[in-house]
Amino acid sequence: MSPTRCLILLLAFIPCWSAASAQDVILVANKSVRITEIRDADLRAIFTGEKTRFADGSHAVPVTLKGGPAHEVFLRNHLGENPEEFRARWRQAVFTGQGAMPRAFDSEAALIEYVAVTSGALGYVSRVSTRDDVKYLPVTKR
After folding, report:
1. Residues of the chain with pLDDT under 70
2. Which phi-psi region, left, alpha or beta, contains residue 120 (left: φ > 0; alpha: ψ -120 to 50)?
3. How far apart are CA 141 and CA 135, in angstroms?
4. First vs last Cα of the chain: how many Å apart?
5. Which residues pair with residue 121 across a beta bridge?
6. Contact residues for 5 (Cβ-Cβ < 8 A; gap 6+)
7. Strand ranges inside the chain, DSSP E
8. What's this model's pTM, rounded to 2 decimal places?
9. How far apart are CA 134 and CA 116, in angstroms?
10. What does the buried/exposed string (b/e) look like for 74-86 if buried means 16 or more CB atoms within 10 Å of the residue's CB?
């Protein structure tokens, strides 16, 4: 196959990659979380350490994945950061005594397990689980 033909095929698939990367994550929360939706600004504030409480005043416990596509999508879509920027922000908070980095998990299953048993926990996954011991929160832009 000629280099030109390869380039044309590669360029033809770029919109497909963009569509896949534009997908969002699903927020999972412990059943003790009383809110039924979360504003995007509040979500960002909780995961950047600016807030430690949900809009109703209850304690928020953000948890993350250690890496992977869902982690990158969450950071990009909701925090406007890449993984390096996210880690740097939290390292600075830890170093200055202003916060402790959110607990991070190797797998979505482990994250969901933790969220299910931790009051106030909030995390994200790439798809809805069949588990009924967590609740799902929609994100609003208002």
Report:
1. 1-22
2. left
3. 20
4. 51
5. 61
6. none
7. 26-30, 38-39, 61-65, 103-105, 121-125, 134-137, 139-140
8. 0.80
9. 5
10. bbebbbebeeeeb
> How does pLDDT run across 63-74, given as a tens digit for each residue?
999 999 999 999
Residue length, the chain?
142
Average pLDDT, the chain: 86
CA distance 115 to 10: 40
**Tokens (6 digits) for 5:** 């033909």
Burial of 22 (0-12, 13-18, 19+ CB in 10 A): exposed
The SS3 call for residue 16 is helix
CB atoms within 10 A of CB 58: 13
Kind of pairing between the strands at 61-65 and 121-125: parallel
* Residue 97 to residue 113: CA distance in whole angstroms: 29
Contacts for 16 with CB less than 8 Å, ≥ 6 apart: none
The neighbouring-strand residues paired with 129 are: none
